[in-house]
Amino acid sequence: MIVEVFKTNVEEVELSERIIQQLSAQFPESLINFDIDDCDKILRVEAAEVSPEKIIQILNSNGYSCEILL
């Protein structure tokens, strides 16, 4: 399994749940969650295959910032 961690600006639970639904549709075998209490508003994606570019694109198209957390 690959784990990618992203820094976002998603601050509301309802919004994070909507984004998780969108990401789950694109990556159905993934485990996806947000930690919006963290200062970096963490998005964590665990899957056999992860496309960071696609994840960033999905969040950006929804008006949110997203970058790989190093």
From TrEMBL:
Name listed for the protein in its UniProt record: HMA domain-containing protein
